[in-house]
């Protein structure tokens, strides 16, 4: 989304913020050239994103507001794994547009309305959007915004980007729609990417919904400790330092019934290899493959395909965007679970819009515990 530029704004409440900071996609970086087409044919090179893929720029907002437009002040921005696909020339999936070189980057954001010419919004409203420009201030169409109620998160507005936002919804609805958990049925749930935004909530939902055992796989000893001691997981495996095969055998003596898959690749092959007959894989994400030129979902090895079919294991793709009609009830439930302390929220907060690229690249490499957020203004 390219922000309109121009002289200072005419209306007094907006003129105060006519200067803004924008993060733009940088021209000529290898990772932006990489393509990930839905055709299954590799196009272009693999690429690991770098903070240098993003450029900070000062700009000036256009004067005044047109009909239906809203001036927002950004409070928090989200960095998410799916954004890696938006760095490719073709995002590879129909529901995501690629970021355009030299234009303002966008993603999940939350902020405050400062001026509005849209009937649904007034100054002071707290609003969120999946296509919030990576800018300190922005003039946006009111149609991209949703109003949110700060009391749902007890004033923790960043939760609207995580546990009471897109990743919390993914965890809750993914478990409920595809996990087939039955209370009292001695189910064992394994979660990969377990210390991240989706994984940390999915494991807690699995426990609350009645799994007898919840085991997390994640990338450090410290993360394992938090999963068990803070979030109530039964066990945790550090895939970087431990043998995952042995760790799963030890932690899942009755085998694995449900697998919430955030990562794909070798970890998922190993988990699926130890799953019970009639088990369920929730195909949430495949982050271990996002820097590669492979289609989504990436192809499975013959051995894993054989395991799935021989043991009659379902492996259905879950897409949170397919459940818009259930979103508000689910967000209300998440808000209640967080408020009551049943679900604990983990966040890693980086300060300053200048650190968007740093936070994004750090998250992709496991630098985050829980949801990675960037605080722009308090
Ligand atoms: P996270 O907060 O989990 O952050 C990403 C984490 O992935 C990192 O912290 C890192 O943790 C882990 N990771 C990175 N590379 C690897 C690797 N090679 N192998 C194993 N783990 C790795 O992100 P989200 O919770 O936002 O997203 C988790 C998954 O869910 C992603 O795959 C994402 O695409 C997917 N998703 C799907 C949605 C849907 O509708 N289906 C919606 C939202 C997210 P560690 O230290 O453990 O390595």
The span between the termini is 24 Å
Q: What is the number of E strands?
A: 15
Sheet/helix structural class = alpha/beta
Order of helices and strands: HEHEEHEEEEHEHEHEHEHEHEHEHE
Commentary on this structure:
There is one protein chain. With 378 residues, this protein is of the alpha/beta class. 26% of the residues lie in helices and 25% in strands. The protein contains eleven helices and 15 strands. The protein has helices spanning 12-15, 30-33, 83-86, 166-178, 197-208, 221-229, 244-251, 265-273, 302-310, 324-339, 356-364, and strands at 19-25, 54-60, 69-78, 106-116, 126-133, 137-141, 146-147, 188-192, 213-218, 235-238, 256-261, 275-283, 314-317, 347-351, 371-375. The strands form three sheets. Strands 3, 4, 5, 6, 7, 14 and 15 form a seven-stranded mixed sheet that branches. Helix 4 (166-178) crosses helix 10 (324-339). The structure holds NADPH dihydro-nicotinamide-adenine-dinucleotide phosphate (NDP). Residues 80-82, 167, 170, 193, 195-199, 218-220, 223, 262-263, 267, 284-288, 318-320, 363-364, 366, 368, 372 line the site of NADPH dihydro-nicotinamide-adenine-dinucleotide phosphate.
Present the secondary structure layout:
Blueprint: H1 12-15, E1 19-25, H2 30-33, E2 54-60, E3 69-78, H3 83-86, E4 106-116, E5 126-133, E6 137-141, E7 146-147, H4 166-178, E8 188-192, H5 197-208, E9 213-218, H6 221-229, E10 235-238, H7 244-251, E11 256-261, H8 265-273, E12 275-283, H9 302-310, E13 314-317, H10 324-339, E14 347-351, H11 356-364, E15 371-375
Parallel strand pairs: 8-9, 8-11, 9-10, 11-12, 12-13, 14-15
Antiparallel strand pairs: 1-2, 3-4, 3-6, 3-15, 4-5, 5-7
Helix pairs in contact: 4-5, 4-10
The structure holds NADPH dihydro-nicotinamide-adenine-dinucleotide phosphate (NDP).
